[in-house]
Amino acid sequence: MAQNPPKVEATVGSEEPRQKGKATPDTLKIGCIAMVTKDGVPRRAEILSIKQTRSGRQFYCNFDNFNKRLDEWVPVARIDFDQDVEWPNPEKDKLKEGKGKKGSTVSKKSHPKKSQKRPGKREQSVASASEVTTPRPTADTTESNQKLTPAEESQAQTPVNGEAVSTPAAGDEMEVDGQGARAGAAVAAAEPKRPETNGFSRQAEIEKLRTHGSMTQNPAEISRIRNISKVQFGKHDLFPWYFSPYPEAFGMEDVMYICEFCLGYYGDFKAFSRHRTKCTLQHPPGNEIYRDESVSFFEIDGRRQRTWCRNLCLLSKMFLDHKTLYYDVDPFLFYVMTVRDEKGFHLVGYFSKEKESADGYNVACILTLPQYQRKGYGRLLIQFSYELSKIEGKLGSPEKPLSDLGLLSYRQYWGENIIDLLVGFNERDEKVTIEHISTALSMTPQDVEHTLGALRMQIYHRGEHKIVIPEKLILQWEKQKTKKRRVIDPERIQWKPPVFTASSRTWGW
Ligand code: ACO
Ligand code: ZN
After folding, report:
1. 89: alpha, beta or left, given left = phi > 0 and alpha = psi -120 to 50?
2. What's the 408 CA to ligand 1 centre distance in angstroms?
3. What's this model's pTM, rounded to 2 decimal places?
């Protein structure tokens, strides 16, 4: 599995040569690739949309090697018209529509379950046929890639409140950011029909989002362009990263107001203020199943709290590009993490989980709201999902594909927990297999293998597969241990795995 460092895929243009030539602000059109300045550096960028504003024409650009969350509207002055632009190739682009972009995992996997990676023969034999040992820490025999690659490192500068500077997208051999699972369009479905543009009607587009999931792959304009520019949410201003199918009219507003408790949305401040005087909710509408000094978790049934859960999905879609669900929330439970103060329980993040996952997923979508990111809350959400799996006596894994940030966070969690465990085995001088690790941490053997591979912890020595902990990793692990970290105390979880009848897992009108 992931033996190679993550690679950065080009994100604009295709492999096919394009016609080049000079353009002017008036002739530059959607689909062109031009040199556009971003943070003072000229970069290749694809024009995804054009609009006329009071201050002149603006072009919505997706930059080569940058995650879509860093797409932006740029004025004419930032485009270098002295250089040739690459004109779109209509024939090729049409073909591309059907196939998805280069480097994506889309292809024709219209059913999410098919995208789940099952253990290959090799993976299973490593775990079962050979004994795996953890020798005492020795000199580092292999180079660790625990250190972030340039692509990952640059993500560290990224996206709190959209003020990111540069974030080339990370790739990896584990499925990342390809076709999504489910998607829906509760709100947009109620909207008036718009005329077809480029052969895509809005309704067809929405349907495509609903059934195909991936926003990234969708060729039509609507899904590729951030529609909401600013959200006021409690005391925070949020700057969305991606498109979310709120009613079209909200795209015209400078600010959208979301009630942080019921998640209702308003385009008008007066209407929102009126709502706030009436809204009595002070916590997510479910049972509190965990409380410690800093956070509480609530369990919410998508079927019982459809509106709230759909609103949560619409909100989270603004920060999740590759998959989400907005409409069909019935088959899911939502585990919502909050922080408390005198005003109530404030939403920090959540993960959704299928009531019954045929593939053994313990997380469908996971999100920390941007204002709380990089503070250790994502780790808490991930730990919580595994604590629930432990109570269920099951192995769990997040639904694939993972986003770039999802992969970084999971890898960190998996790596840290595996090393924690192995150090214990090592101190007791015990032998350990991949199955041991998998059972102890409720992780699937594939995820254990993936992590061992990514951290270069597996070696083949004298006919045996062995697990080693490179010294570099031990040093990093010791350093991490000195940091004060948020953790879930499993003793405080008050939860029994819920049992559902077949009918309550689906949505029946
Ligand atoms: N750059 C580099 N490393 C990162 C970054 C980043 N931007 N974000 C997380 N990490 C890694 C780090 O190793 C970090 O540990 P450290 O801070 O000690 O170095 C570790 O992940 C955990 O970080 P947390 O602070 O606990 O995670 P956070 O609260 O920021 O949440 C999450 C992570 C949920 C992925 C968040 O980034 C998010 O909501 N992103 C948008 C939505 C998304 O992509 N979700 C995952 C989709 S995959 C799926 O749904 C199954
Ligand atoms: Zn409200």
Report:
1. beta
2. 6
3. 0.73
